[in-house]
Design brief:
The protein has 244 residues and is mainly alpha-helical. It has a domain of 103 residues: Iron/manganese superoxide dismutase, C-terminal domain (minor pseudopilin epsh fold, 3-Layer(bab) Sandwich). Helices cover 59% and strands 9% of the residues. It has 10 helices and 3 strands; from the N terminus they run ααααααββαβααα. The chain has a 3-stranded antiparallel β-sheet with strand order 2-1-3, with helices on both faces. A hairpin with a 2-residue loop joins strand 1 and strand 2. The radius of gyration is 27 Å and the shape is elongated. About 5% of the residues have low confidence.
């Protein structure tokens, strides 16, 4: 009888002391698994890259207000919408370039394409600008501009005119195609990746949200100011040297 009582006391002690520990350990393991799962989800999401300069760094050519709306509302909106659209699809975890290639010209994937391409285009656009940019380029890119357009002045005229001539929303690009620099314009979210049209070197945004708060309908004034003061020729030089 005494032995049975002792065993009962030991059993009760173990239940009281060890069960909570086992429960806590089990909960910790579950939480860890959830945390790892969340990390996997986060790592597969498309993110909004930080700007390569402060929001007021491009003034007076592009105001802080315009940049804040453009980056914080429009660009961020494309990123958020893209993550919403690709959730649970085969596009989760892919690079933006892959998503663009796989959805271009696919009628049932138009929304995914538009948002993926606009995220990529804006990522490229912010780097095409610099507070210390503008002016006549030097280095390899400067020589290529002279060789392929005849002069820097010819390039400026053609680049500006292409941007002005783009009807409605779109982009004007400097690309390299088969070793030659060319200027192209694309509508809406289209870009050189979706069109399989050369290698992007620089881009300017001619959607109205890129300039309307500062220039209203004077797109030509916006383009002239950006080309004169903000074009990031160092970025162009790096793109010219990369393989693709």
């Amino acid at each position: 009888m005494r032995i049975s009582l002792i065993l009962l006391i030991i059993f009760i002690f173990n239940v009281i002391f060890f069960c909570p520990i086992l429960v806590i350990k089990a909960e910790a393991e579950v939480n860890q698994e959830r945390s790892l799962a969340m990390e996997d989800v986060k790592s597969s999401l498309f993110v909004l890259p930080a700007l390569p300069y402060e929001e007021d760094a491009l003034q007076p050519v592009i105001s802080a207000k315009t940049l804040s709306f453009h980056y914080g509302k429009h660009h961020r909106g494309y990123v958020n919408k893209l993550n919403e659209l690709v959730s649970g699809t085969e596009f989760v975890g892919l690079a933006l370039e892959e998503v663009i290639e796989k959805t271009a010209d696919k009628a049932d994937k138009t929304a995914i394409f538009n948002n993926a391409a606009q995220v990529w285009n804006h990522n490229f656009y912010w780097n095409s600008l610099s507070p210390k940019g503008g002016g006549k380029p030097t280095g390899k890119i400067g020589k290529k501009i002279e060789a392929d357009f005849g002069s820097y002045e010819n390039f400026v005229q053609q680049f500006s005119q292409a941007g002005i001539a783009q009807f409605g929303s779109g982009w004007v690009w400097l690309i390299e195609d088969a070793g030659t620099l060319r200027i192209i314009k694309t509508a809406n979210a289209e870009n050189p990746i979706s069109q399989k049209n050369g290698k992007a070197i620089l881009v300017l945004d001619v959607w109205e949200h890129a300039y309307y708060l500062d220039y209203q309908n004077l797109r030509s004034d916006h383009l002239k100011a950006v080309i004169d003061k903000l074009i990031n020729w160092e970025f162009a030089e790096r793109n010219l040297k990369r393989d693709k």
